[in-house]
Amino acid sequence: MARATAGPSRTHSHILSTYRLQFHKGFPFSAGARLAGYLAGLGISHVYASPILEARPGSQHGYDVVSYDRINPELGGEEGFRAMARAFADCGLGIILDIVPNHMAVGGDGNALWLDLLKHGPASSHADWFDVDFDSKDPLLTGKVHAPFLGAPYREALSAGKIELVEDAARGGYALRAGEHLFPVRPEDDEEVRRRGIAAYGDLALLDGLARRQNYRLDWWRSASDRLNWRRFFEVTELAGIRMENPAAFDAAHRIAFELYADGLIDGLRVDHVDGLADPAAYCRQLRDRLSDLASRSPERAYRGPAWIIVEKILAPGEELPIGWGVDGTTGYDFMDQVSALQHDGASERELAAHWSLVSARSPDFADEEHAARREVLEKGFEGQREYLVDRLLLLAEQAERIEDIPRGAMRRAVIALIGNLRTYRTYVTGRSAAEEPGPFFDDALKAARLEPLADLLALDFIQSVMRGTDAALDRDGRADAIRRFNQLSSPLAARAVEDTTFYRYGRLLSRNDVGFDAGSLTMTAQRFHDLMSGRATAQPRSMLALATHDHKRGPDARARLAVLSEIPTEWRAISDLWFDLNGSVRPAGLHAGDEYFFYQMLVGAWPLEDLSADGQGEFADRMLAWWIKSLREAKLRTNWTAPNESYERLAEAFARSLLDRSISAPFLASIGGFVDRIAAAGAVNGLAQLVLQCTAPGIPDTYQGAEFWDFSGVDPDNRRPVDFEARKAARSSADEIPVLAASWRDGRLKQAILSALLRTRQELPELFLSGSYIPLEITGHRRDCLIALARRHGDRALVCVVPIRAHAVLGHGSLAPAAEWWGDTAVCLPPSKGGWAPLWGTAPASDLLHLRMAMPEIPSWVALSRPLR
């Protein structure tokens, strides 16, 4: 990779905000460069770029990396990236880069490292980069790589001519090909093929013999869960785990990122799926050390602060990011959850849960669904990894002379019970110390596992001794390997069982089912939110604050609108019951009521603010149907990804298209449109409130591409649709226009203007936001429970933020702001400011008591800066 000096100096030296851009062939670096002026004008300090290394052809996200050696040519390659970085730097923008250390894309014919592994097997110079069990107990896989990429069982594929022998020019030999997948032939077989000629292998017996001699075992794709002898990303066989604990693999995976950082073209990194790594703590510290060393040797860097490192880490309720990792925080799912919970009315929790249970005939308790899903996914989706862990534990038990007491079935049940009850992604013990503490979540899982009917206490006790290191007889390397396998199984299991299964099964209120959310809890008190933000200001003032991501289940404004339903549970129950009645004539026999209820919530959350044209109505129907089918498959109740139930999916499609066809379902469409119209303003106020909190709370706010306008998107690929940036450029308004824009809030310009005003304020007073203290403010009066108020202070400057927390109570069915008299005597006690207060919009207070009836005439939120004394 060519080296270059750092780009032009930038106008600021702080990471204050980010804007996520999803690069792909249809949106390359050149398209990003054209946004430089717009993003800088919006108030963004850094572009947060999706992964840029070479990925599978046509990749829409970049997480399927096939080569560490070059920047993706589909995006513009190195030259295009450097040109974009210069364009950004000219406008004062930096870059934060998303990296993918945990896995690479395999299968196909594009990953040279993978193909080398297949060709040479254990002798490959990259064999220890991949997490392959060459000592598999399966005799068909001993010394081999399981290759479950065939579209049919092996014998059937062979007989049907789906496996053929071809030349492999890239490696100077031959390969088997099955569709898009290439499988290089062993070096020792190349000469035989060359001598016989490819045509000779039209003889199936000869071809079969060649295939069986290879360093891999060709197999049907459906065999992966049962037989796979290498670690993959979740249940995705096309993504193989990479061992970042291997120094050579670490260096190769990060070489380009380190060069870009040394050249001053990027200012930090976002680490994807850090919990998938063998030792996240060691990895993060190594990353920090390397970046710090590069910074010390690059004195001309435009950005002079420490590299910003954030990790994609799902925090369980009560879990904190481990200290000592050397990172700045998480990617912000935790904040997303907290601000969402703040906007829900906890008084409705039991009523909503009871209604869901009545409609779906499923448990009203999220914990029940989660526990069942964990067991189910662990038993059906990760059998290969699970059995590998059981093997390692049994070897240790044999060393400790415990093998006679713990048969294989008992050890398997103990593993399933323990990991099935673990409420965090993983532990962080490594096996490198004689005595380690797995933590309270492990202890809770152990207690729960002991209470299960078929619990094997001896096996559970033994696993505990392995995790804690209390048995000196255990081989150190064997113990460390077993612990690594335990953690690298519990982590993907949590993701698949909770976010990708339970969230699609449990339908109490879908606004609480999103990535990183505590879906079992509907609400959060203002005091709890204050406590969390105060802790954030102290421990992680530079952690990311997200509201929308490329992984979200639904956009921030869809969640904000659905949160309104928690304030009107009785009305919501009545209207949804009405829809069940209205749609009886178009409901096909066999459609499950729980799935229908899910769909109604999806429609309410995503319903457009503008009237749909005929074309728009068809596009909306297509989006909702694709979203619903994905939801049904993820739930794995009546269809799934492995074996789609086409008949059930046809029922769902017929129903969805009938519902969204005005010629068939006009009464329903009028009803749902009217209902959404009644709650839309409250949803918008919720959306603006969470935006204001995001930009004023301790941390670094991220704006997902396009989300400066209203974002009612669904799960990917819906949230990765093209963004109309020209409309956003044309809509930019100043803070002075905010009160006027409130009248036309549906077009999204108001949200954009508020965001820009807040981001620009962050640029004017960076230390206030990066280092300022967090102060909860007292609210008085009979509407005090409808608001949350906070202050940030640094030196002689301060900021105050006041927003509603349950917008329907504030608005009823009215406009964007309530009548002034509705607030009555409600007031916020402002901190002292000798120079008074200058609001970003709205009315300035006459004293240190902010009376809401005077402060919020157009928009029910208020942000002000203390005026400096002149």
TrEMBL record:
Superkingdom of origin organism: Bacteria
Domain spans labelled Glycosyl hydrolase family 13 catalytic: 17-423
Single Gene Ontology BP annotation: trehalose biosynthetic process
Family matches, as InterPro entries: GH, GH13_cat_dom, Maltooligo_trehalose_synth_4, Trehalose_TreY
Pfam families the record matches: Alpha-amylase
Family annotation (Gene3D superfamilies): Glycosidases (3.20.20.80), Maltooligosyl trehalose synthase, domain 2 (3.30.1590.10), Maltooligosyl trehalose synthase, domain 3 (1.10.150.200), Maltooligosyl trehalose synthase, domain 4 (1.10.10.470)
Annotated GO MF terms: (1,4)-alpha-D-glucan 1-alpha-D-glucosylmutase activity
Designated name of the protein: Malto-oligosyltrehalose synthase
